[in-house]
Amino acid sequence: FQVKSENKETIWNTEEVPEGSEFDDTWDPREKPEYEISFKQHVGTEDVFFGMTGKDPSTACCEDIVIKIKLPETKYSDITLDIQDKVLDLRTPKKKLLLHLPYPVNSKEGRARFLSEEEVLEVTLRRKLDFLNFS
Question: Hey, where are the domains in the chain?
Fold first, then answer.
């Protein structure tokens, strides 16, 4: 099995390189912050009582991914956040997190808020739904 490349000098094809690897820096001394991933599902009475939409409690039926990142001793202005379809890249002066997301997301539809009392950044991302996982 050979992959044809347009340039004979290249040693790999661009499809072989995972998304977000350009951000991966193994030599960066910053510590990785604690984080928690949870899933959010929008349900109505037609789901709860009648089961009309076919949704179940699994993550496959969830529309949103919520990531809570603990950032002690960090100001909102120090946070740099970049969201790609499959990667979350967070950087502060003391912390760095490169997180490969469990599902592809719509990078333009997300939102983030910094809870200063709890010192937590909460990022909510809308999943891209495929032919198996649809609402």
Answer: 35-127
